[in-house]
Amino acid sequence: MKSNKLGGRRAKVKEDIASKKTPPNLDVETLPDKKARSLKITSLFQARYGTPECPLTFRTVEQLAVAVILSAQCTDARVNQVTPALFDRFPDMVRLAEASLPELEKLIFSTGFYHNKAKNIQKLAQILARDYNAKNPKDFDVLVTLPGKGRKTANVIMSEGFGEAPGVTVDTHVKRVAFRLGFTQSENPTVVERDLMALYPKSVWRVLPLYLIFHGRETCHARKPQCGVCIIKELCPSAKLFLAESPASP
Q1: pTM for this one?
Q2: Is residue 30 domain-shared with residue 109, that is, in the same domain?
Q3: What is the domain extent for residue 151?
Q4: 16 pLDDT exceeds 90?
Q5: CATH of the domain at 226
Q6: % of the chain residues with pLDDT over 90
Q7: Which of 20, 92, 138, 171 is catalytic?
Q8: HEC letters along the chain
Q9: For the chain, what is the domain count?
């Protein structure tokens, strides 16, 4: 009978986390305590991942901008398979601005959504060639207005292209892991970014999303997080729910 109750509790835990209900007991955690916990987590991530490099392959900031557009709804590994041929054919924004859409679509086809991506890449190249001497501007406020861009991609370009992190890059992995860690209660990327920026010092804004992305890919999977082997399970409220050994007290 006890095992049935335990099985039912575990099933409910999985349902709660999958439906993104807030892990319990976080209301009593003070901000200083949460900051202390967050720094312990990043320390463990640093020991595991070191100082991570950008997973996208590029030679120039402009190529990075193109790669980021291609990475939407696509794995970094796939993008890195596509970009060598793309950049060999169109190594800079001037030549990319003059590319024909059918040829561009053919080169990026396997990344998905190739019609829209090709249009955004061509429009971006045309704007950069016309208005910015074929270079990506080092201006966050300008970057968010360019075709195929937004806060996420602008943060990537500033962090990985220019070595400055004006904010925290938020993708699906970052949202999921940050929620499960109790660092945010929102699915809105702008709110998640704000919550993480309030929690962490600016010195880790660049590496933090990479840590969360790598951890999300390696361990904290969307459907079946591997809490049993997680390096931060002792600091994660969601892991404690998953690994609960006894049913809740009546």
Answers
A1: 0.83
A2: no
A3: 61-162
A4: no
A5: 1.10.1670.10
A6: 76
A7: 171
A8: CHHHHHHHHHHHHHHHHHCCCCCCCCCCCCHHHHHHHHHHHHHHHHHHHCCCCCCCCCCCHHHHHHHHHHCCCCCHHHHHHHHHHHHHHCCCHHHHHCCCHHHHHHHHHHHCCHHHHHHHHHHHHHHHHHHCCCCCCCCHHHHCCCCCCCHHHHHHHHHHHHCCCCCCCCCHHHHHHHHHCCCCCCCCHHHHHHHHHHHCCHHHCCHHHHHHHHHHHHCCCCCCCCHHHCCCHHHCHHHHHHCCCCCCCC
A9: 2
